[in-house]
Design brief:
alpha/beta, Glutaredoxin, 22% strand
Amino acid sequence: MCAAGKCCVCVCVFHQVWLLSVLEAVKVSPLIERVSDHKDFKKLLRTRTNVLVLYTKTATSGDSQLKLLSDVAQTVKGQGTIAWVNCGDAEGRKLCKKVKVDPSSKSGGSMVAFLKDPSGPPLWEENPEAKDVVHIETEKDFRKLLKREERPVLMMFYAPWCGVCKRMQPVFQQAATETKGKYVLAGMNVHPAEFDGLKQEFNVKGYPTFCYFEKGKFLHHYENYGATAKDIADWMKNPQPPQPKTPEVPWSETDSAVFHLTDESFDSFLEEHPAALVMFYAPWCGHCKKMKPEYDEAAEILNKGADSPGVLAAVDATIHKSAGERFKISGFPTVKYFEKGEEKYTLPQLRSKDKIIEFMHNPQAPPPPEQSWEEKPSSVSHLGSEDFREALKKKKHALVMFYAPWCPHCKNAVPHFTTAAELFKEDRKIVYAAVDCTKGLNHELCKQEGVEGYPTFNYYNYGKFAEKYNGDRGVSSYIMFIYWN
């Protein structure tokens, strides 16, 4: 089966064999097998388990596309094979004709999608179930649509790798089918840099962003990211701008059993309570918000029990800064155990109600910390507030992972991020970097860079923030994000 239409490549699947076309070939690794004879080609497919075949228009070049795949060939040595067919010479031309491959097509979307997930769904515009969505490819087509269309238009600006976009696309296409004829629901991949002006014009700061137009005029955004097809259809009947968000009530002003401390009350409280667990937090911190319900539930039991082994308290370290500075709080949340007014343990592993209660009944020192990511040899550049700006300003491409050492999602991402960094270690214009937001003054840097949860990935171009990375957290996704920027 060969992909056709607007793909940049013809991708043919022979059981577990992957075929892919590109425009130019570059310096070829010895691990990439050159094939021109049809019999040799069939033998290769028959005898190897996983084969990725690259068809090129000519034998000349020096483009970084095949440089990347030469590195991949080294990585998959023994597990997969990468082969190369030059369709520009006589024998190669015959082979390309036999397998019906045309390496002259021009768009990269299908290749990216295929490399990320060879068995995954087709591009959105190639999905027959999305036939009622108007798929826009260029800014010119976008302007033309707005100029000629009399019906209201709801435009979904998206990126192909965006998880929320993938989740919402079936809902959006169902809504397009249900409202066909009344409204226009359109989709446009605006991730490429050529659409930066468009994104700025319509305040596209993340994916997906929904923009509503009437007679070519932008009116407002649609922000229900948990919508059903019916929700979208109903909203289109009476489109209203997003409602202003209700200000969040401070934790200390809610009906909470937790004792909320201030700089002034901190010491006297510890004198009155010989065993106390204190959570230092920031209101904006995503992990603090996630932990609050668990901490509240534990406090309902521990703070109200007559025979409780200790109490739970909390300090907003962004307001009561003296307490935070005194105990060197550099990341949130930080949980410390105090005994008779003295700090005894810092407990990064306490995040759930059950673990908190279990600890208070039997206070034990936390397990020794593992070797930190920063201490392990890798091609990731570990940066801090003192060298962050200087390190990035000479790099054309920088993907930075802001993390906390205790964060499970960060731990899962580390090996994939590290492997991606290894592939680009020789390229002086590319860096994969990491910032431990719990270390020293880094929490201020992380706050400045818009970090509200861990891990957060930001992409920078010569030191300037370009966009947040919200893609999959796998090796190929980290690699292809840099490769296509």
